[in-house]
Amino acid sequence: MDLMTIQNISIFVLAVFVGYHVVWNVTPALHTPLMSVTNAISGIVIVGAILQAVPINDHEINLTSVLAFTAILLTSVNIFGGFMVTKRMLDMFKKKERTNKD
Fold this sequence. Notes:
The protein is mainly alpha-helical. It has a domain at 25-91. 73% of the residues lie in helices and 0% in strands. It is built from 3 helices and no strands. It has helices at residues 3-24, 31-53, 63-91. The longest helix has 29 residues, at 63-91.
C-alpha cells in the first residue's frame, strides 16, 4: 500500500472512533437535534455524490460514478429514515388531546 492509502485508512478509522464516542456520550435530550444535524450532513454528502456521479468529459461509467451512485442511494435512505425517526421523536413531545366520555 502506498502512503496516501494508509493515511486515508487512518483518518477513516479515527473518524469512526471519534464519531462513535461523540454520539454515544450525547444526553438523551439532545438526540433530536443530533438527528437534524445528521440529516443536514447527509444532504451535503448527497450533493457531493451527485457532482461526482455525473461524468463531465468522458461518457463512460467508471468506479467513481458507481461509488457516487451508491452514495446517493445510501444517503437518500439515511435522510428518509432520519426524518422519519425525528418525526416520531418530536411526536412524543406533543400533548395528546383528551376526549371526554360521558
